Amino acid sequence: MRVALGADHGGYELKEAIRKHLETQGFEVSDFGTHSNESVDYPRYGSAVGSAIIKGEAELGIIICGTGQGISIAANKIPGIRSAVCSETYSARMAREHNNANILAMGARVIGVGLALDIVDIFLKTEFAGGRHANRVNLISSIERGETI
Ligand code: RB5
Protein backbone atom coordinates (compact mmCIF):
# COMPACT_ATOMS: atom_id res chain seq x y z
CA MET A 1 0.00 0.00 0.00
CA ARG A 2 1.23 3.51 -0.77
CA VAL A 3 0.68 6.11 1.94
CA ALA A 4 0.93 9.87 1.33
CA LEU A 5 2.40 11.99 4.14
CA GLY A 6 2.20 15.73 4.69
CA ALA A 7 2.84 18.11 7.56
CA ASP A 8 3.50 21.74 8.36
CA HIS A 9 6.39 22.85 10.58
CA GLY A 10 4.36 21.91 13.69
CA GLY A 11 4.06 18.33 12.45
CA TYR A 12 7.41 17.97 10.71
CA GLU A 13 9.19 15.92 13.37
CA LEU A 14 6.25 13.58 13.92
CA LYS A 15 5.96 13.11 10.15
CA GLU A 16 9.60 12.05 10.04
CA ALA A 17 9.00 9.49 12.79
CA ILE A 18 5.92 8.16 10.97
CA ARG A 19 7.78 7.93 7.65
CA LYS A 20 10.54 5.84 9.21
CA HIS A 21 7.95 3.69 11.02
CA LEU A 22 6.07 3.01 7.78
CA GLU A 23 9.19 2.30 5.72
CA THR A 24 10.37 -0.18 8.35
CA GLN A 25 7.05 -2.00 7.91
CA GLY A 26 7.41 -2.11 4.12
CA PHE A 27 4.86 0.55 3.18
CA GLU A 28 5.56 2.66 0.12
CA VAL A 29 5.57 6.31 1.19
CA SER A 30 5.11 9.54 -0.76
CA ASP A 31 6.32 12.43 1.40
CA PHE A 32 4.85 15.78 0.32
CA GLY A 33 6.79 17.75 2.95
CA THR A 34 7.42 19.96 4.71
CA HIS A 35 11.07 19.05 5.08
CA SER A 36 12.21 21.29 7.94
CA ASN A 37 11.05 23.19 11.04
CA GLU A 38 10.77 26.43 9.05
CA SER A 39 7.31 28.00 9.28
CA VAL A 40 5.00 27.09 6.39
CA ASP A 41 1.26 27.17 5.62
CA TYR A 42 -0.57 23.97 6.53
CA PRO A 43 -3.28 24.16 3.79
CA ARG A 44 -0.62 23.48 1.11
CA TYR A 45 0.24 20.12 2.67
CA GLY A 46 -3.34 19.05 3.28
CA SER A 47 -4.04 19.92 -0.34
CA ALA A 48 -1.03 18.00 -1.66
CA VAL A 49 -1.90 14.81 0.22
CA GLY A 50 -5.59 15.05 -0.61
CA SER A 51 -4.88 15.60 -4.30
CA ALA A 52 -2.56 12.60 -4.40
CA ILE A 53 -5.31 10.39 -3.02
CA ILE A 54 -7.95 11.69 -5.42
CA LYS A 55 -5.54 11.11 -8.35
CA GLY A 56 -4.97 7.53 -7.16
CA GLU A 57 -1.29 8.13 -6.43
CA ALA A 58 -1.75 6.89 -2.85
CA GLU A 59 -4.43 4.82 -1.15
CA LEU A 60 -4.43 6.54 2.25
CA GLY A 61 -2.91 9.70 3.68
CA ILE A 62 -1.55 10.92 7.01
CA ILE A 63 -1.37 14.65 7.69
CA ILE A 64 -0.02 16.46 10.72
CA CYS A 65 0.03 20.01 12.01
CA GLY A 66 0.16 21.42 15.53
CA THR A 67 -3.38 20.38 16.37
CA GLY A 68 -4.33 18.32 13.30
CA GLN A 69 -7.30 20.63 12.82
CA GLY A 70 -6.20 23.16 10.22
CA ILE A 71 -4.56 20.69 7.88
CA SER A 72 -7.60 18.39 8.16
CA ILE A 73 -10.06 21.19 7.43
CA ALA A 74 -8.00 22.08 4.36
CA ALA A 75 -7.85 18.49 3.07
CA ASN A 76 -11.59 18.07 3.59
CA LYS A 77 -12.26 20.87 1.09
CA ILE A 78 -11.26 18.45 -1.68
CA PRO A 79 -14.31 16.47 -2.88
CA GLY A 80 -13.83 12.80 -2.08
CA ILE A 81 -11.51 13.42 0.83
CA ARG A 82 -12.65 12.26 4.25
CA SER A 83 -10.03 13.36 6.76
CA ALA A 84 -10.49 12.45 10.43
CA VAL A 85 -8.57 14.07 13.30
CA CYS A 86 -7.72 11.33 15.80
CA SER A 87 -6.02 11.51 19.19
CA GLU A 88 -6.73 7.92 20.27
CA THR A 89 -7.01 4.53 18.61
CA TYR A 90 -10.79 3.94 18.91
CA SER A 91 -11.61 6.95 16.75
CA ALA A 92 -8.94 5.94 14.25
CA ARG A 93 -10.46 2.46 13.90
CA MET A 94 -14.00 3.80 13.60
CA ALA A 95 -12.95 6.48 11.11
CA ARG A 96 -11.89 3.69 8.75
CA GLU A 97 -14.56 1.12 9.64
CA HIS A 98 -17.60 3.40 9.65
CA ASN A 99 -16.60 6.57 7.80
CA ASN A 100 -14.20 5.15 5.20
CA ALA A 101 -11.80 7.97 6.09
CA ASN A 102 -9.02 8.19 3.53
CA ILE A 103 -6.84 10.55 5.55
CA LEU A 104 -5.75 10.39 9.18
CA ALA A 105 -4.97 13.79 10.71
CA MET A 106 -3.11 14.21 13.99
CA GLY A 107 -1.83 17.04 16.16
CA ALA A 108 1.86 16.82 17.01
CA ARG A 109 1.32 19.27 19.88
CA VAL A 110 -1.54 17.15 21.21
CA ILE A 111 -0.24 13.57 21.40
CA GLY A 112 3.14 11.88 21.81
CA VAL A 113 5.01 9.88 19.20
CA GLY A 114 4.23 6.48 20.75
CA LEU A 115 0.48 7.02 20.69
CA ALA A 116 0.65 8.55 17.22
CA LEU A 117 2.37 5.43 15.84
CA ASP A 118 -0.27 3.19 17.44
CA ILE A 119 -3.00 5.33 15.87
CA VAL A 120 -1.27 5.06 12.48
CA ASP A 121 -1.05 1.26 12.76
CA ILE A 122 -4.75 0.91 13.62
CA PHE A 123 -5.84 3.33 10.91
CA LEU A 124 -3.86 1.58 8.17
CA LYS A 125 -4.91 -1.95 9.06
CA THR A 126 -8.66 -1.33 9.50
CA GLU A 127 -10.94 -1.93 6.51
CA PHE A 128 -14.16 -0.07 5.72
CA ALA A 129 -17.12 -2.15 6.91
CA GLY A 130 -19.44 -1.13 4.04
CA GLY A 131 -23.12 -2.12 4.39
CA ARG A 132 -25.22 0.53 6.12
CA HIS A 133 -22.09 2.64 6.51
CA ALA A 134 -21.64 2.79 2.73
CA ASN A 135 -25.07 4.36 2.41
CA ARG A 136 -24.08 7.05 4.92
CA VAL A 137 -20.77 7.77 3.23
CA ASN A 138 -22.65 8.02 -0.07
CA LEU A 139 -24.83 10.69 1.55
CA ILE A 140 -21.68 12.67 2.34
CA SER A 141 -20.81 12.46 -1.36
CA SER A 142 -24.29 13.75 -2.17
CA ILE A 143 -23.65 16.80 0.02
CA GLU A 144 -20.39 17.40 -1.86
CA ARG A 145 -22.35 17.44 -5.12
CA GLY A 146 -24.62 20.14 -3.70
CA GLU A 147 -27.60 17.86 -3.33
CA THR A 148 -30.12 18.34 -0.55
CA ILE A 149 -30.38 15.15 1.47
C1 RB5 B 1 0.92 26.51 13.26
O1 RB5 B 1 1.43 27.33 14.25
C2 RB5 B 1 -0.40 25.91 13.68
O2 RB5 B 1 -1.39 26.88 13.59
C3 RB5 B 1 -0.73 24.72 12.83
O3 RB5 B 1 0.28 23.77 12.95
C4 RB5 B 1 -2.01 23.99 13.15
O4 RB5 B 1 -2.10 23.68 14.49
C5 RB5 B 1 -3.24 24.63 12.64
O5 RB5 B 1 -4.35 24.07 12.73
What does this structure look like?
The protein has 149 residues and is of the alpha/beta class. It has a single domain (2-144), classed as Sugar-phosphate isomerase, RpiB/LacA/LacB (Ribose 5-phosphate Isomerase B, Chain: A). It is built from six helices and five strands. It has helices at residues 12-24, 42-54, 69-75, 89-97, 113-125, 132-144; strands at 2-7, 28-31, 60-65, 83-85, 103-107. It has a five-stranded parallel β-sheet with strand order 2-1-3-5-4, sandwiched between helices. α4 (89-97) runs parallel beside α5. The longest helix is centred in the first third of the chain and has 13 residues, at 12-24. The radius of gyration is 14 Å and the shape is globular. The model has no long low-confidence stretch (mean pLDDT 98). The structure holds D-ribose. D-ribose binds at residues 8, 10, 42, 65-67, 69-70.
Which key features would you list for this structure?
5-stranded parallel beta sheet, single chain, Ribose 5-phosphate Isomerase B, Chain: A, binds D-ribose, 149 residues, 5 strands
Low-confidence stretches: none
How many H/I helical runs?
A: 6
* CATH C-level class: Alpha Beta
Given the C-alpha coordinates, what overall shape results?
globular
Strand content: 15-25%
CATH level 3 topology: Ribose 5-phosphate Isomerase B, Chain: A
Helix content: 40-55%
| Whole-angstrom Rg | 14 Å
Structural class: alpha/beta
Write out the distinct hetero groups bound to the structure: D-ribose
What average pLDDT do the residues reach? 98
CATH architecture designation = 3-Layer(aba) Sandwich
Task: Give the distance, in angstroms, between the N- and C-terminal Cα atoms.
Answer: 34 Å
Total number of domains: 1
